[in-house]
Amino acid sequence: MTLEKPEIEPAEGPAPTELVIEDVIVGDGAEAVAGGNVTVHYVGVDFENGEQFDSSWDRGESISFPLNGLIQGWQEGIPGMKVGGRRKLTIPPEMAYGTSAALHPLGGRTLVFMIDLIDA
Its domain of life (predicted)? Predict the structure, then answer.
């Protein structure tokens, strides 16, 4: 099954203050575990304006990494996901890049990621 780059619909209402996990497609492969290594394709957009800030799709290749090296929203939002699945994570600033734009360009922003799990 080859998925195409997802579109993320503009958000409505106020930004959530907690991590929101939504399974768009439930996979049937191996399950991602906390602290494990994963291979994903993803798109990230700003919750407020819907502007894309990052996409592995646009680089033309998936990316692999250990979960424990990522932002908290990914560390908590990916475990339990199964290979072949697509999950939407809406991540408040405290679980992303912090509350200050002085420390990171995405600081203070609520972020939305659509993640396709390719391998776990």
Answer: Bacteria
Q: Is 71 a catalytic residue?
A: yes
Give the amino acid at 51.
E
Mean pLDDT (whole number) for 52-80 = 96
Domain boundaries defined on the chain: 20-119
Question: Which of 78, 97, 116, 118 is flagged as catalytic?
Answer: 97
- Whether residue 77 is predicted with pLDDT greater than 70 in this model: the reply is yes
State the pLDDT at residue 67. 94
Task: Give the whole-angstrom CA distance, residue 57 versus residue 100.
Answer: 28
Q: By the 8 A CB rule, do 55 and 43 touch?
A: yes
Q: For the domain bounded by 20-119, which CATH number is listed?
A: 3.10.50.40
> Which residue among the candidates 78, 91, 113, 118 is catalytic per the annotation?
113
d(CA 6, CA 69): 24
Per-residue HEC secondary structure of 72-103 comes to HHHHHHCCCCECCCEEEEEECHHHCCCCCCCC
